[in-house]
Amino acid sequence: MRQFLSVIAFMLIVIGSFSAYSNLGIPQIEPAPPPTEEVIDLGSMDMGQFLALGDRIFNGKGTCTLCHNSLGRAPMLDQIGSNAQARLDDARYAGSATDIEGYLRESLTDPSAYVVAGFGKAGTNDTESPMPGTESGSIALSGPELAAVLAFLQDNGGLEVTVEIPTDMGDEATDENAAEPGEPRAPFTSFQDLSDEFACEACHTIGEEAGDLGPNLSAIGATRDRDYIRRALLDPNAEIAEGFEEGMMPDDLGTQLYATELELLIDHLSQLK
Amino acid sequence: MRKTLSFGFLASLVALVVCVLAGTGPALAQEAAGFGPAPVLTAADYPTVAGVNGRLVIWIVAQLHLWFAAFVLAVPIFVFIIEAIGMRTRDKRYDDMAYEFIKVSITAYSITAILGGLLLFSLILFYPHLFGYLSTIFSKSMFYYALLFFGESAVLYLYYYGWHWLQGDLRKWIHLSLGLLLNAIGTTLMLLANAWLTFMMSPAGVDPAGVFNGNEWEAIHNFLWNPINIHRFVANIAYGGSIVGAYAAFKFLTARTSQEKAHYDWMGYNANFIAICALLPLPFAGYYLAAEIYAYSQQMGITLMGGIFAWLFIIQAVLIGALFLSANYYLWCGMGRSDGARRYYWAIKYIAIVLIGAFLVWFTPHTLVLTNSELKSLGGPHHSILGPLGIMPAKNTAVNLMIIFTFLSFLIYRRSNKVATVSWEGMGNTLQVALFTAGILNILFLGIYHGYFTNTVYKVAASIPQVLTTFVVIVVSLVLDSFIYRGARDVGPLHWGRIPDRAQYALFLLAVAFTWLMGLMGYIRSGIRQHWHVVDIMRDNSPNAFTPTLGYAANVVSVAAVIFLTLVIFVFWIAKVSSVKTLPAGYWKE
Known about the structure:
The complex is a heterodimer of chains A (273) and B (590). Chain A has two domains: 42-156, Orthogonal Bundle (Cytochrome Bc1 Complex, Chain D, domain 2); 191-270, Orthogonal Bundle (Cytochrome Bc1 Complex, Chain D, domain 2). Chain A contains ten helices and no strands. Chain A has helices spanning 2-25, 47-59, 80-89, 100-109, 143-156, 191-198, 220-223, 226-234, 253-256, 259-270. In chain A, helix 2 packs across helix 5 (143-156), helix 4 packs across helix 5 (143-156) and helix 8 crosses helix 10 (259-270). Residues 171-176 and 178-182 of chain A have low confidence and may be disordered. In chain B, a hairpin with a 3-residue loop joins strand 3 and strand 4. The two termini of chain B are 27 Å apart. In chain B, helix 3 crosses helix 4 (128-137) and helix 8 (225-253) runs antiparallel to helix 18. Mean pLDDT of chain B is 86; it is low at 1-12 and 18-32. In chain B, the strands form two sheets. A two-stranded antiparallel sheet of chain B has the order 1-2. Chain B is mainly α and 590 residues long. Classes of the chains: A mainly alpha (273), B mainly alpha (590). At the A-B interface, helix 1, helix 8 and helix 10 of A face helix 1, helix 11, helix 12, helix 18 and helix 19 of B.
């Protein structure tokens, strides 16, 4: 028993030491929270504020400085004013930009259009850039955010700022569930709200509302099961009800719905009998 | 024992039923429907169950499952090898040792399956949409995975219970073949599970919205699948060796006879040997994995090595240092078994100095946390001379030297009880010294040149020639030594059991440091996905989507490690009581 307790004590001391070192011997850095879209009030923004916004995104959400820094992982961008035209004229340039602003925009949205010598992916002979796209994936800049970064790059690189401050966010949603700039919309919690939002009853008859471009759904649950309804919502052209045309129902509904909303729709429709 | 084994079957059955009901059910419906995009989730899509933190539950259960899985996948690999050695040498001690290894792991297998079932339930309860999405894509492999558990259980039962039955020429071959089959199934299980987790890091077979193209093999064979497979395969063997080594160490400490002590000393030596053999290539497998992460996503690679997680590698350095030092210390103590070891005692202190020096280099952080006045007096965040010790060329140099000198420890241990009889022994030893000197100088030159005289882009270029140098030194040295000691005579019999008790604590340290290190690296592997369930495809919008601090992560790993070691002690205890018989006087009718 003495040996057993000695071994247990030894193991606990070792684990405790590792834990103590990790808590006390290492700086406890509070990681940044997940990025959110910058809240932008375009209407009241002057160019100085717009450039400051680009600076914030460049150093923050855009994660540009992870690579574009003095360690040489990616080209420095403070000299972009003096070398952008040369790159645009380079025989290796494979993009479609005709001016420097276009070149810079293309560098953000299609980084492989021109890869600075020595900075391409290994084995691609500088034809493929390791830089991720900035409009999707983990960076996912909105249009105004992208414009702000462009303006910042021009200013920071000694160029004349030709990018104009966008006039709107490109967001037309206005109801209470619509997203505030910088936030995803809140999910709908009732069938009626969902139906109103996605205008189901413009085409389908559901209860008292009568549309005739799509099948009558008033008793859909009596003849169709949940799997059928799920398929019809996610891939509406997989099976077309007799007497109706293909392609009438939007096939991207699934991309616009939260998972809970999809289940809510299926629950409600399957109960209509 | 039979009762605990039945838990294995039960857990397999539960896993299968749950997979069918929860996983493949919706998946098959999806297949009929065509595949939808990855769900866009809100905080409301993550259920709260009994007020517990879902991420914490998944974290701990997944880690426990992984530790046990690593152990039970590794043990059959070296049991197979030891059994084959026993067959070839006809030395029954090997067969007995292999049987004892598998006996220790048998209860652990049941616990692995039970933890797997618990992990599955936890995922369904706490992350239903994520699990639903993954099961849509991996429906077939998840189904086969559950089925394979039956195969694994059946072969394991035959292998273990048939050990003494399947003895003799043909029967022994059949038994060995069962061992091979057991390993094949076990490895396949690991490869499948690896595919699911690497898909979350480097998704394939889906479009940018996450719509699956229906080709499951493409999703399985994603960019990081093989790097993880290789890394885990090697690490599992090292880990399995360390856990069995801890078992042998405990048995040694509690042994009552000199025969028992000798047996468990021999077992501990073999377990440590297995752990070291796998430990030596492990850093290379780790670097390969990190390089592939960089190649897949520079952003992810920088998050791994240059962001918040960079400090984690300083903790890792402490653990790796503990691993190498404890493995070497055990070897040095083990030299006491031989009367001829005194000839080499002088070398130990120099090996120790190099190991500690290399450890300190690995321990040096790149960016120091400094006050303003310290920053001013230093002239920047990096010291002008010591600063490059924080970057990869120096770390690579340190780890290669650690490996070479650990190999040197093994080499002198191997020589300690032998006296060479070949006429060219002096020339052979000179060649050995020249080989080591040239290798070490080359590693140092590459490290210094790339560390101080090239820019960042080329700094990692030192790693491959350094690794090749280490590899050449080890292989050529082994070949050379085998010729030098051909026909060598023994100094005397090896005194198994003649080793101090404190050496056994080196084996405990090895096991605990390995356990903790695996937990830490599990955190970073998962953590570099940051706020994504599936990188760039399915965002984690739960309240727990933030990355915790290293201290918090370390505490979680510590709690999980304590739970794990408690369960391991239970496993060892069960293995012991299964062979204990109590004869209560007067209880049974005569």
